[in-house]
Amino acid sequence: MARRFAWTPPCLLGALLVLGTFGCAPAPKGPPNILLVSIDTFRADRVGAFGNADGLTPNLDRFAKEATVFSHAYAQSTITGPSHASILTSRYPSEIAGTSRAPSIGKDMYTLPEVLGTYGYQTAARVAGGDLNPLMGPTRGFDSYESSVDFGSLWHTLPMAVDWLDAADPAKPFFLLLHGYDTHSTYLKPTPFGLLTTGVSVLTPAQQATLNATELVLDGKRHANFDLLDGVTKSLLRPRSAEGKARLEELTSHTPRPLPVVPPEDEALIRKVYDGAAAYADVQFGFLLAKLEARGRLDDTVIVVLGDHGEALGEDGLFHRCCSLEDGLTHVPLLVRLPGGEGGGQRVDGVVELVDVMPTLLEFAGATLPAGIKGVSLTPALRGEPFTGRRAALTQGGGGIRMISARSQAGRLTYTGVQAISDVLGDIVTAAQLPGPAFEATEGADAAEQAALRAEMVRWVNSLSPSPLQAAVLLPPELRDTLRAKGYWDAQ
Q1: Is residue 14 part of a domain?
Q2: Does a structural domain hold residue 203?
Q3: What is the pLDDT of residues 19-44, one digit of tens each?
Q4: What are the helix (H) ranges across 112-204?
Q5: pTM of the model
């Protein structure tokens, strides 16, 4: 019986379609096609296959039944540009001068499309502007790199991708990066998705203003501009501490008029509107699968779906992406479907990082891994072999945020002090008091786990290649003195 794939609307619309299954066609011979789908700012906890029970993502959930679900995958940055640069180089953001918005990939590093191109792959990217526009994005190695409207959706990039696929040489394998900002702020999507899960049909002017400026909502208030929040974040060692919150309160007390208050019900509304954006992204993904099915590409393509980072949705009073490396910002969906759905339906609970995507895909292409990459191949897990994963996943604060974080299955340890490109970071992380003001641990990370996670941080710092910016970012003497005075660094 012929298979049929069509997009499935969210169950909240009350219109689930009854569809056939993918089936299990035999995998084709030769290097497979590779499709990497990046849904920007996509939290793992909104996907049914990752435990969400609200029925937001029926297409991804159905896809997961023929894919491997990596339940503990973590991003290396909370900013789009550095995160994608890490994915495409298997290096950490500080190694590629990528802790700010626009990464700069060193000449001694190879990108995923660059390597695949040497093995005969056609390479293309269709991205949704913003931090991935051709002037800022990691374009190196792509035969074709095109951007849609800034901060656009898969709705904009999918037709571009399909046009490229239709014109591609069928005799050569392809690598295609498809990207959309579907769950990026602002979250409000076209009807019916915008207010799909909210229980309201009309927004008040205040609610509309809040949704238009979600990135400015912090501690129950809508701030005047992001520059202020950004400045506070960079000037304080721990901006979400009592000291940091008091500093922000003091600065904003001098504004000409009181900051608008965001009541708890409107914060809940933000989260529900984000849910609608997740449902919207899922529908676009369903369209993608239907188009691949119609072109006979599902059974000869490795498909990877991921979120490049997450989003804070009110945890600790924080919305958007500044000031934190908690799970809401770093825990992302990662699903890998092999050609024909081979070996699909399994769940892997070992900790993995997004830098692991590149070596995994290169192994499928039969390519030699370039020297210096930091990822490990996930193919043993995809083959159903025993797989323990990493001891911990490491994430760096982006945009000048002086944080690094190690996340194990048990919990998280976050260090705040100097940036990862500092030449003294290793010494400080090794010598700082534990427990102490430089470190903050989540519930579940007891003393032994904190020590183990600190050891992972030290190992990670020592493994990093020198950053192109390293020589220019020496620790200022006054900051060194401040760190010592506050107990962040034992001078002995």
Answers
A1: no
A2: no
A3: 334 444 444 468 999 999 999 999 99
A4: 112-118, 154-167
A5: 0.91
